[in-house]
Amino acid sequence: MDKGFAPKVSFVSLGCPKALVDSERIITRLRAEGYELARQHDGADLVIVNTCGFLDSAKQESLSAIGDAMAENGKVIVTGCMGAEPAQIEEAFPGVLSITGPQQYESVLDAVHRAIPPLHNPHLDLVPPQGIKLTPRHYAYLKISEGCNNRCTFCIIPKLRGDLVSRPLADVLREAEKLVKAGVRELLVVSQDTSAYGVDLKYASSRWNDRDVQTRFLDLARELGEFGVWVRLQYVYPYPHVDDVIGLMADGKVLPYLDIPFQHAHPDVLRRMRRPAAQDKTLARIKSWRQQCPDLTLRSTFIVGFPGETDTEFADLLDWLDEAEIDRVGCFKYEPVAGAPANTLENPVAKDIKTSRWNALMARQQKISARRLKRKVGTRQQVIIDEAGPAGGKGRSKADAPQIDGSVHLSSRRPLRVGEIVTAKIDRADEYDLYGSVAGF
Questions:
Q1: Rounded mean pLDDT of 143-153?
Q2: Residues 188-227: tens digit of each pLDDT
Q3: Which residues of 34-120 form beta strands (DSSP E)?
Q4: Where in the chain is the domain with CATH 3.40.50.12160?
Q5: Which of 109, 153, 213, 403 has its CA 20 to 30 A from that of 423?
């Protein structure tokens, strides 16, 4: 590092939106201390790799990223979920400077300080009040808690990130306020278990704008709904009290969108998965939600090929999908995770059967998605613009979360701006996307 020049750090962020928020916090602290961000490893003084350790495939991606950083730079700090169990990293790359688990921001900063001390120059503090974001300017992930109290048999997240630790609601609202003032028009609420928010704090009150607010899922949604921006609720387990938030969606306070990881539909599979809030009345509740809020969009994820899954149990899942008409679906072939209790379950499903079931589920869901999107042809939808060109652009409706759902492709008489919300007339639909033209600004 040249004397008198700000030290440069290259950063790799892998994994879920919750890990992205961790990366944003680390980068915000580094920028506040005068560090610069480098676009390439070989032009940096060191590299930080924020890893994912949920599945073996994610671990391999993390190890590959560490290997690239070691080859191109040589001074590497590793953090994130895979760092919670460092043996595999230490064995593959004994020369890394430091390995820490998720949320250990201070340890990461200490390791950076040891490797390249910061320059104490007050003129280098260029951090905006809302911190550094790794998402586009018009949307941001708002993390409300860390960890998880559930003990699903296929998951090791509690082992990596610990039990549920909720942020007091006033703290969340202060962060949301800063983001909105900085121009964010969509807040995506994330955690490991969003609807369990506050249970660890016994829903304690905190002070916000000269009044008390309770750290509770419904209060969170209600308060965020007062900021006048899109509020999208993700990773919501279907506990009974989730019913209470549907009224806020019907009233336009929060987006009519629920991301609920059902994972399966057959009660025996759900029991083997040890899923919380698994109940027989789910279809009735979905019907009730849609009666109360007809515009509601449901997104979910499912696992096929879980140990012991029979042909009958899988067929029941397909039938359930037909009846539930989930709008957006992600599907995973079951993959053993080191340390997960599901590894000891009997009757593992053969690889070729997992693949055929995955193909069958995705084919079935494609028809459901196409059918539900076709109902929007001829309607007008609000669309937030993600990409803009001279004659149109691409954005998302209230039914679409960034990176994981579909898009709305638009033509426009005037150039569009990234981040603006327009009214679009929908002309046609395919299995995943909508197409139309801008009808109002």
A1: 92
A2: 999 999 999 999 999 999 999 999 999 999 999 999 999 9
A3: 36-38, 46-51, 76-80, 98-99
A4: 8-124
A5: 403
pLDDT category of residue 440 using cuts at 50, 70 and 90: confident
Residues 87, 107 contacting (CB under 8 angstroms): no
Give domain 380-440's CATH architecture. Beta Barrel (2.40)
Confidence grade of residue 124 (pLDDT, cut at 50, 70, 90): very low
**Residue 134 burial (CB count, 10 A):** 14
Superfamily of structural domain 8-124: Methylthiotransferase, N-terminal domain (3.40.50.12160)
Amino acid at 196: A
* Overall pTM > 0.90: no
Q: Measure Cα distances from 273 to 56, 151, 258, 339 in Å.
A: 19, 9, 22, 14
- Nearest partner of 252 among 382, 373, 369, judged by Cα: 382
Query: Residue holding tokens 């639909």?
Result: 429
Render pLDDT for 240-270 as a digit per residue (tens, 0 to 9): 999 999 999 999 999 999 999 999 999 999 9
**Which residues lie below 8 Å from residue 93, measured CB to CB, with a gap of 6+?**
66, 67, 70, 76
Helices 17-32 & 105-115, crossing angle to 10 degrees?
A: 40
Note the CATH architecture for domain 139-374: Alpha-Beta Horseshoe (3.80)
Q: How far apart are CA 250 and CA 289, in angstroms?
A: 10
Beta bridge mates, 355: none
